[in-house]
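In this supplementary section we document a worked example of the pipeline. Step one takes a protein sequence of length 398 as its only input; no multiple sequence alignment statistics are reported here. Step two produces a three-dimensional model, which step three serialises into structure tokens for compact storage. The input and output of this example are shown verbatim.
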Amino acid sequence: MAPRHAALAALPAPAERGTAPREALAVGALAALAALSPVLLGLLSLAPNRLLSPRPLALPLTAPIGLAGAVFLVACLAMALLARRRALLPWAELAAALAATALLAMAGLGAGVALAEASPSARAMPAAGLWVGLLLLLLGAGAAAAGRGGTPTRFLGLALAGAAALLAGGWLDGLSLVREAAQRGPELRAALAQHLALSGGALALALALALPLGLAALRRPRLEAALLGVANGVQVVPSIALFGLLMPPLAALAAAWPALRAWGIGGIGPAPAVLGIAAYLLLPLSSQLLAGLRVAPPALVEAARGQGMKERQILWRLRLPLGLGVVLGGLRLAAVQAVGLATLAALIGGGGLGALIFQGIGQLATDLILLGVLPVVALSLAVDAALAALQSALEARA
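The serialised model returned by step three reads:
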């Protein structure tokens, strides 16, 4: 029986017998759809000016565009083939990033050729095929990353580096979005600074409220019920309605004490926006703080008390180290939520990137809308990635 048992032990595990991971089919299907999206949905659209609607544009078949298209198709094919072996999944992500870069290059080069033969007021805009293709490539890279137990951060980093290289090389200058960004450079930078100030101020205010209230509610069930009840109740109120409810009392305060206006406190502007966003952030911060502080088993806490440790020592040496992951998870959620909610501050005069978005909506200008939307998305991803790295580092030290 011993040789038989030895033979059975030498057999590979079920997950290792096949060379193709279960994500291979999904990656292949997404790569194929991404390759077809520019053909089926179009890559570019051209409008004579901002007032007229854009029309689909046939991509000029010049040599640089053809080369970029060939790289795009080969990269999509390589993405599907590489995903069939688990050891090559990281290379499948690399192929997806190369395909995304080549797709952007096709759009930028095509826009430059199209505008060379159009009027000076013409605008070349990405069509649905570009956005759908990029989304499919992201999903395919995410499936490949899931096959190795990770996230598509490698794809995002390489794709952003490729887009930055194309932008620095002038390959994307023909796109209306890039032209709009160049014309509104100072306005875009000011809006980004305002957006960071709004979201950062709201997060700091919410932390200043959630931390002491959460610590106080840890051993007081009535205070915990009141805190979470108020925080949950705020979530029911629409954000615009909450901003509107805050405007009259803040306007009354500014009228009673004019010195408050020097601090930016008034019925309109950043004050009601920061207060309203902070109210929304109170729930994820306080609930995750309480959940994290209760990760430590009660028996372990009682043993620490029996050894003479005070509540403050138990908090810093036991509760926080064990529940740090849960607490930082709530902070990540609140930070990303703050970046998104700060977009609505423009509706009450708070500024930020939302001002560009609502300007674009009012003018039916897709490029102007994207000029505000894309930085918000990038900022959310950057904040989440930075806090995730901080969480990993602190957990490793703990």
